[in-house]
Structure formats: structure tokens, C-alpha cells
Amino acid sequence: MIYPALLALLLSLLAFLAKRRWKRYGPEPCGGKKLPSPPSLPLLGHLLELRRQDLPVRFMELSQCYGPVFRLRFGIQDVVILNSVEIIREALIKKWSDFAGRPPSYTGDLISFGGKDLSLGDYTPLWKIQRRLAHSSVQRSLRTNLESLISQEAEHLCQDFLSRGSSPMDVANDFSLHTCKIISSMTFGVLFDTKDPEFQAIHKCIAEVVRLWSSPRVIVLDSVPLLRKLPNATLEELLRMAERRDTFVRNQLQIHKETFRPSEIRDILDNMIHFLQERQQREQSLAAEGGEEFNEDHVHMAIVDLFIGGTETTASTLTWTVAFLMHHPQVQQRIHSEMIDILGPNHFPEYSDRNRLPLLWATVSEMLRLRPVAPLALPHATTKDTSVAGYFIPKGTVVIANLYAANHDEMIWKNPTQFRPERFLEAEDPKQAHRNVLAFSAGARVCLGEPLARMELFLFLGHLLHHFRFLPPAAGQLPDLCGIFGFNLRSKPFQVRLVPWTEPGLGEGQE
Ligand code: HEM
């Protein structure tokens, strides 16, 4: 008897909350327009939309009917979706501080010392310090000999591929191990061997944390607090993996602190320790005045985020590029010829060659445009009452920037679903065309790894296409280009034969 009564109470509470939140989106007192929203179910709102795997595409479809900005309701959570370049720029760039927040996350807090995270942390004074520190540390690293490290890694990988012969293989994990190796070297100053089982274990652990945290059984805990009381094996596994990750980072922190010398900053972690030590001295006076504390947990989580951000994203983009180029062998041929003609047969591209190798550079941008690996970015939250396109949006609203839709925006891109790197070469203003790609988002939360990712993509692709043609395992066996949508947009697993240009190849793809 008690359960139906409880259920009725719960349903009426949800109905009340939903109605109350709905009202908040009514016309603004001073005359803002009401946000369009598709018809929804009582209580559930638009929750059933979440069954769709390809949410970015679904949101694009909805924007055809409801315009580039609309509202959805998931249970009691209102979410505003932005779907065009113009609207995303207005929100994230023009009104950047209004949209710089992150929504609270129960599960995010569990794996980040109570929300001391860089990617998921809200827009607070401490977060600003953390972001500035992470940004300046990455920039500092970019100014050192990073390019030679990336080129060396790209060449190692090519030599490894050469030693395996031209039989079909899945390259996704190799790319992921190498991007992870580069970010490890930048953060910890350690050049791991990608075949070292210990390194492979931490690489796998990081991937598992992302996979488990974005699984439906964990995500649902953020919107249905009642479920937090029930046993949840996926959450327990996530906590175990996060603990393993933290032990690894803690060890690195310990080693760095023991060997730290302020006159010799070796890597990103040293740079952060240096900052922390200087700040802690100053903070003794701040604490006496009741000021907030920036501590080792913030450094720890910034390192974790660089590690996570720096591994799978760039690797997935590279994998996508191989998949698309298998469908377009003539583009492979033209990029290879461009390199040989401009640089000669014995020189690999350097990052400063971007303007001299416009097709290679355009291919990187085209891939970031067509398959942005974080298609919905990370959820933003408004930090105050604000508006976009004249629609009122209250403080604390969750806002999703649909980067996938922006990169398929027909106002900006002709035939947006086609893979055509040439579009960047033909553009009236090629530099602006490259800037129009919104794979790294924009504004206060723009990806702080963009310069690193672009350099890695350019150099790895340059080395790969200098050595190899990317051929299907057998004639016509080309990769599926639809991909798997989720938190990341990944390609489905596929096999490729990496055949040196000097060897004849069978079973090429179609142009
Ligand atoms: C192709 C490669 C990459 C893509 C497409 C990408 C894309 C993104 C996107 C869309 C966001 C969310 C921005 C937002 O919420 O509006 C983001 C955030 C972030 N990315 Fe990347 N990323 C890439 C590589 C990297 C690399 C190499 C690093 C590490 C150096 C990195 C570190 C981060 C961090 C720390 C954040 C959180 C920023 C914040 O919340 O303030 N990313 N990235």
C-alpha cells in the first residue's frame, strides 16, 4: 500500500517541479521571447530522446523545426541546445562569462575530490586559477622541444608499422598509446615505452574511467538521486578505477616533490608544483583573512584532465582521418605528392610548413569539422540570467553547444556532409575557414589542448602519409563512416593495410 502512495507523491512532486521550471522560461519580465520546445510527455519531458544514440544528429533534426536554439526537459532538468555557429558564438564568445559555468555533477564530484576538477569544475575563482595554471603550463611545454618529441613519436610509430608488414591491422589503439605517451612526457617528463605493461595498464585505466563515467547506469545517478541509495556495480568499478588513476598520479606527484628544484622546471607537473609552493606561501596570509585555498588536489585533477583530454580525442581524430582517406585514395595521393614536391623525398613536414602544405593542413581541419570527437562539447551552465538570440535563459540552466551541428551548418559550409578538404583551399578567406571549424568549442571553456592537438594531427598524418598508402584489407572493404556516438564520437573498429608507396597495392577504395 505504501508504494503506490509514495509513487503518487513522487509523481506529483515531479509534476510540480517540472511546471515550476517550465514557468521560468516564460517571457522574460522585460520582454524576452519564450524558448521554442518540441511537445513533451508529462513528467518525463523529452527523456525518451536520450534513447537515441546519435543525439547531435537528432538535435540537428529538431533545429530544422524549432530553430537553432530550443529547450528540452529531461525529467526536471531543463536543457538549452545551441545548434548554429552564430548562436554558439553569441553565447560562448560574446557572452562568454554568462555561459562559462558547469552544471553540478554528483558522480563527477565522487571522482574529483569533491569537484576540484578542471573540465567539470564550475566557474569559480579557484577554477580560474586552475585553468590559468593548466593553460600556462601547456603553453610553456609548447615552447620547449615538443615538436621534435611529437615528430620522433610519429616516426617511431611509422617504423613500428613498417616492421609489422602490410597485413591488415586496427590502428586505433596504437594512436591512443602514442598520444598518451606524448602527454605523459609533457606532464611527468617520463618517456614511457608503449609496450611497457605498466604504461598500458594506466592507459587502459584512464580510458575505463571515461567509459564508466559516461555509462547510462552512472549518468542516471546525476538526475535521479533516489537511485544513489541502491547498489550499483558500474559505479563501484568506476570508483576502483579512479582510485587506481589517483594512486598513479599521487606517485608521480611524490617523486616530483622529492626531486623538485625551482631553478630547473622539467615538465608540466614541476611547473604546477612551483606555482603551488609560491602560492601556498602567499596563501598563509590569505587564509588568515579567510581566503579560499588552492591546493594539491587542484593540481592533481588538472593533471588527470590533461591526461584524459590529451589521449583519446586526438587519437580518435587520427583514426577517423585514416578511415576517410581510405574512401578517398586520390586525396592520399595528392597529400603525398604535395609533401614530396615541396619538401623533397627525404624530409618530413615541420609544423611551420602548414602554409606550404595546404592540402595536408586542410585535411586536418576537414576531419575536425566532419567528425568533431566531442560533438556536444561538455555541458555548460549559465552563471547568471542571460539571453541568446533574444531568448531569456535563467541562471543555472544547462546549455549544450552542438558542435556537430555547427560544423554541418549550411550557412557556413556548402555540402557539409561531404569530405572535401579542398573547401579550405577554395575559400575566399582560408584562414577564416579554418577558424570556422568548431571542434574545440569556444570562449572561456575552449579546449586548452587545441594547439597541441593540431600539432600532433599535422605531424602524425604527415609522417604516416609520407611513408604509407592506407588501403582496405580487401577490395571494397571500406570502413563504416557513421561512427558511434556517445560522450565521444568514435569510428567503428576497422582494419587497414599500411602499404609503403614503393609497393604496389591491391583493393584500393573508391574516390
Ligand atoms: C582533436 C583533439 C581534441 C578535441 C576535438 C577536443 C575538444 C574539446 C572540447 C569540445 C572541449 C569542451 C569545451 C567546452 O566545454 O565548451 C574540450 C575541453 C578540454 N580539453 Fe580538449 N580536445 C582535444 C584535445 C585535447 C588535448 C590534446 C588536451 C590536453 C592537453 C585537451 C584538454 C582539454 C581540457 C583540460 C578541457 C577542459 C577545458 C575546461 O573545461 O575549461 N584536449 N576539448
UniProtKB/TrEMBL annotation:
Topology relative to the membrane: Peripheral membrane protein
Subcellular location: Endoplasmic reticulum membrane; Microsome membrane
Family matches, as InterPro entries: Cyt_P450, Cyt_P450_CS, Cyt_P450_E_grp-I, Cyt_P450_sf
Record's signal peptide: 1-20
Cofactor(s) required, per the database record: heme; heme b
Pfam families: p450 (PF00067)
Enzyme Commission identifier(s): 1.14.14.16
GO biological process: hormone biosynthetic process; progesterone metabolic process; steroid biosynthetic process
Keyword terms of this UniProt record: Endoplasmic reticulum, Heme, Iron, Lipid-binding, Membrane, Metal-binding, Microsome, Monooxygenase, Oxidoreductase, Signal, Steroid-binding, Steroidogenesis
Binding site for heme: 447
An example molecular function term from Gene Ontology annotations: steroid binding
GO CC, alphabetical: endoplasmic reticulum membrane
Family recorded in the similarity comment: Belongs to the cytochrome P450 family.
Listed PANTHER family: STEROID 17-ALPHA-HYDROXYLASE/17,20 LYASE, STEROID 21-HYDROXYLASE ISOFORM X1
The protein's name in its UniProt record: Steroid 21-hydroxylase
Gene for this chain: LOC117346866
